[in-house]
Amino acid sequence: MVSLLDHLRQRLAREGALTVADFMGEALTHPVSGYYMRGDPFGAPSPSGGDFVTAPEISQMFGELLGVWCADTWMRLGQPSPCALVELGPGRGTLLADALRATRQVPGFHDALDVHLVEISPALRERQRESLGAHQVTWLDNVGQIPEGPLLLIANEFFDALPVRQFEQTAEGWAERVVVLGPDGNLAFALAAPSAANRPLIPATLRDAPQGTVVEVCPAALNIAAFLGHRLARQPGAALIVDYGPVKPAPGPTLQALRHHRHHEVLEAPGSADLTAHVDFTSLAQAAANAGCETHGPVRQGGFLRALGIELRAAQLAAAAPGAAEAISAARRRLTDPAEMGDLFKALALTSPGLGAPAGFEAASPQAPGPLSSGGQDR
Questions:
Q1: pLDDT tens digits for 287-335?
Q2: Which of 23, 276, 343, 365 could form a disulfide with 307 if both were Cys (CB 3.0 to 4.6 A apart)?
Q3: In what order do the strands lie in the sheet with 256-259?
Q4: Domain parsing of the chain, residue ranges
Q5: Would residue 151 be called left, alpha or beta, if left means φ above 0 and alpha means ψ between -120 and 50 degrees?
């Protein structure tokens, strides 16, 4: 079997250069050797562990509170039935399993739901099937397959893995950064010739940045945001996007590779490491708003989770399992503390026009609906 590196060398021999986005697409989703296609990348550091841990794996509180957000939004929508509950890039299915368990006492909610997961990895689909075995689930290959009708959508750490293009300001204008074959036969970065066609792709606030400035753009993210904005403008629903990145477009390359919880060279051993880049929330929201929906936020993850009641939930779990109180408190801090995930990660909501600000995006903290009021350590 041809390795992914050899496959890329063959492509470069034919094509001369690949955009950074093309390289990311191959490294992450090549049908045989792509990073997400080969197995389960999640897990704590250990010889046999994964490469990274996401919020749902840190604590059940994260998925539970996002489930409460969905149930509350469903009620604000008028309790439509049926209602599609969709998660983009659901990982192991942990988030949705926690969300569904936490909302099982909301009258009529589960009966109304039609659960869909947008996932291309066969290995991760199997893990999701294990996590969600008690629920009927339909898997989709892309957002275009989401069924018509009322919609609740969650995307946690999904947009950061979409392929980005990189551009550098030169004396002759914006030039695209590309991947080429170096003299030693290894992959290397280079600059394509500057082109006037690149300038409109740069966020307006950064187009006149000084020479040497690097800017990343993510066409796939903007296309999905526009698709969701158009969908929510026509049909009732809401989408919750949680990811990491700045509130406003910022210069500088953020593309990074992570392997075994350590930084890894981006071009080294493609397919063996996760590749992510910061999400441009302003451009994401603008693309969705231009398509007709309303946007709320972004707000910092720490404040968002506190507004949804994470402090109360942590206290409930600690009371039910005193021996785990220290671990529960540490997980809460990791999710909400500004020095950890609390400020770096943001939440953005897209809603149908007229719905108003959903829970966590209002000036006053909402009262969480009832499913968590009984406490208890469920996992």
A1: 999 999 999 999 999 999 999 999 999 999 999 999 999 999 999 999 9
A2: 365
A3: 262-264, 256-259, 274-276
A4: 4-33+165-217, 55-162+218-372
A5: beta
Burial class (CB in 10 A: 0-12, 13-18, 19+), 46: exposed
Q: Within 10 A of 48 (CB to CB), how many other CB atoms are there?
A: 5
73 C-beta neighbours (distance < 10 Å), count? 21
**CATH, domain 55-162+218-372, list 3.20.20.60, 3.90.850.10, 3.40.640.10, 3.40.50.12710:** 3.40.50.12710
Helices (H), the chain: 4-15, 20-29, 35-38, 55-58, 60-76, 94-102, 109-112, 122-131, 219-234, 281-290, 301-308, 310-320, 325-336
pTM of structure? 0.91
Nearest CA to 313 among 67, 65, 103, 104?
A: 65
Q: In the prediction, which pLDDT does 373 show?
A: 35
Q: Which amino acid is at 26?
A: E
Strands 165-170 and 137-140 turn out to be unpaired
